[in-house]
Design goal:
Blueprint lengths: L1 H13 L2 H10 L4 H13 L3 E2 L2 H4 L5 H6 L4 E2 L3 H14 L4 H5 L9
Antiparallel strand pairs: 1-2
Helix pairs in contact: 3-6
Protein backbone atom coordinates (compact mmCIF):
# COMPACT_ATOMS: atom_id res chain seq x y z
CA UNK A 1 0.00 0.00 0.00
CA UNK A 2 2.80 2.32 -0.91
CA UNK A 3 0.29 4.47 -2.81
CA UNK A 4 -1.36 5.43 0.48
CA UNK A 5 1.93 6.62 1.92
CA UNK A 6 2.62 8.69 -1.20
CA UNK A 7 -0.86 10.25 -1.23
CA UNK A 8 -0.67 11.09 2.48
CA UNK A 9 2.78 12.65 2.10
CA UNK A 10 1.41 15.00 -0.56
CA UNK A 11 -1.69 15.67 1.54
CA UNK A 12 0.35 16.58 4.66
CA UNK A 13 2.58 18.86 2.57
CA UNK A 14 -0.45 20.71 1.18
CA UNK A 15 -2.57 20.72 4.35
CA UNK A 16 -0.27 20.68 7.40
CA UNK A 17 -2.12 19.35 10.42
CA UNK A 18 -1.39 22.29 12.77
CA UNK A 19 -2.32 25.00 10.29
CA UNK A 20 -5.43 23.17 9.10
CA UNK A 21 -6.59 22.53 12.67
CA UNK A 22 -6.03 26.21 13.56
CA UNK A 23 -8.23 27.19 10.63
CA UNK A 24 -10.97 24.85 11.82
CA UNK A 25 -10.72 26.22 15.39
CA UNK A 26 -10.92 29.80 14.13
CA UNK A 27 -14.25 28.89 12.52
CA UNK A 28 -15.57 27.37 15.76
CA UNK A 29 -15.28 23.80 14.55
CA UNK A 30 -14.29 20.86 16.77
CA UNK A 31 -11.80 17.99 16.33
CA UNK A 32 -14.47 15.63 14.98
CA UNK A 33 -15.34 18.24 12.33
CA UNK A 34 -11.67 18.36 11.32
CA UNK A 35 -11.43 14.56 11.10
CA UNK A 36 -14.66 14.12 9.17
CA UNK A 37 -14.21 17.01 6.74
CA UNK A 38 -10.55 16.25 6.04
CA UNK A 39 -11.30 12.56 5.50
CA UNK A 40 -14.02 13.56 3.05
CA UNK A 41 -11.66 16.01 1.30
CA UNK A 42 -8.91 13.41 1.07
CA UNK A 43 -10.93 10.38 0.05
CA UNK A 44 -13.36 12.09 -2.32
CA UNK A 45 -10.70 13.93 -4.29
CA UNK A 46 -10.35 13.20 -7.98
CA UNK A 47 -6.73 12.80 -8.97
CA UNK A 48 -5.60 13.57 -12.49
CA UNK A 49 -2.97 11.22 -13.86
CA UNK A 50 -0.55 14.00 -14.68
CA UNK A 51 3.24 14.00 -14.51
CA UNK A 52 3.27 14.83 -10.79
CA UNK A 53 0.84 12.01 -9.98
CA UNK A 54 2.77 9.53 -12.12
CA UNK A 55 5.98 10.36 -10.22
CA UNK A 56 4.53 9.17 -6.88
CA UNK A 57 5.76 5.87 -5.51
CA UNK A 58 3.32 2.98 -5.59
CA UNK A 59 0.75 4.50 -7.92
CA UNK A 60 1.05 1.58 -10.31
CA UNK A 61 -1.75 -0.06 -8.33
CA UNK A 62 -4.01 2.96 -8.92
CA UNK A 63 -3.07 3.18 -12.59
CA UNK A 64 -3.99 -0.46 -13.11
CA UNK A 65 -7.17 -0.44 -11.03
CA UNK A 66 -8.54 2.86 -12.34
CA UNK A 67 -8.11 3.11 -16.11
CA UNK A 68 -8.64 6.45 -17.77
CA UNK A 69 -7.25 9.90 -17.08
CA UNK A 70 -8.41 10.25 -13.46
CA UNK A 71 -8.54 8.27 -10.24
CA UNK A 72 -11.73 8.22 -8.18
CA UNK A 73 -11.30 5.80 -5.30
CA UNK A 74 -13.82 3.05 -4.72
CA UNK A 75 -15.25 2.30 -1.28
CA UNK A 76 -12.52 -0.17 -0.33
CA UNK A 77 -9.64 2.16 -1.22
CA UNK A 78 -11.35 5.10 0.54
CA UNK A 79 -11.67 2.92 3.64
CA UNK A 80 -7.96 2.05 3.55
CA UNK A 81 -6.97 5.68 3.05
CA UNK A 82 -9.23 6.82 5.93
CA UNK A 83 -7.75 4.25 8.24
CA UNK A 84 -4.18 5.31 7.47
CA UNK A 85 -5.08 9.00 7.78
CA UNK A 86 -6.42 8.41 11.29
CA UNK A 87 -3.35 6.34 12.20
CA UNK A 88 -1.15 9.25 11.03
CA UNK A 89 -3.07 11.44 13.48
CA UNK A 90 -2.39 8.92 16.24
CA UNK A 91 -5.98 7.69 16.35
CA UNK A 92 -6.79 3.99 16.38
CA UNK A 93 -9.88 3.93 14.16
CA UNK A 94 -11.37 1.02 16.13
CA UNK A 95 -11.20 3.01 19.34
CA UNK A 96 -12.41 6.23 17.78
CA UNK A 97 -15.43 4.99 15.88
CA UNK A 98 -15.68 1.26 16.35
CA UNK A 99 -14.80 -1.31 13.74
CA UNK A 100 -16.61 0.45 10.90
CA UNK A 101 -15.32 3.65 9.30
CA UNK A 102 -17.89 3.56 6.53
CA UNK A 103 -20.43 5.72 8.34
CA UNK A 104 -18.10 8.74 8.31
CA UNK A 105 -19.14 9.37 4.70
CA UNK A 106 -22.81 9.81 5.62
Amino acid sequence: MEWITSILEVYWDLRPCDKTQQLYKSKGLKPFDYWKLEIDYLTKSVWIKDEEFLSLKGVEYLLFKYPGETVVLDENDRFLLKTHFLYDLGIDPRTFIGDDLHYIEK
